[in-house]
Design goal:
By secondary structure, the chain is α+β, with helices and mostly antiparallel strands. The chain is built from three helices and five strands; from the N terminus they run βαββαβαβ. The N and C termini lie far apart (about 30 Å).
Length: about 110
């Protein structure tokens, strides 16, 4: 079982895009917890189980990070570290994967060291 934490914008279809990607990449969602933050930000924790041994959680984390409404994503013990970031979004730590540039900038996103 793997746990991933996602800091995301609460926009229409965002959760559906994340869960759809997870399932298409060969993971089964075993549990979901979502906590609303300030404004339009939310924290999503997902417990995932790979359908087979060929599935790699690190690749999935990088793919999720590329989605438009995802601000940050982390796996394992680093996933819990994103939870406090709901109320005070700062620079991502080295344990998180920032969202890939999608043509628009966001003041809350920083560059990875």
């Amino acid at each position: 079982m793997n746990t991933i934490g996602i800091l995301m914008d609460r926009t229409e279809g965002a959760l559906q895009r994340i869960i759809g990607l997870v399932e298409r990449r060969g993971f089964v969602v075993a549990g979901v917890t979502m906590q609303a933050g300030t404004g339009t930000v939310a924290y999503l924790a997902m417990d995932l189980r790979a359908r087979d041994d060929s599935r790699n959680i690190d690749i999935l984390v990088r793919q999720i990070a590329r989605l438009v409404d995802v601000r940050r994503v982390a796996a394992g013990s680093h996933a819990i570290a994103l939870d406090p970031a709901i109320s005070a979004i700062g620079e991502p730590s080295s344990a998180t994967a920032p969202r890939a540039s999608s043509g628009h900038s966001s003041a809350s996103m920083g560059a990875m060291p």
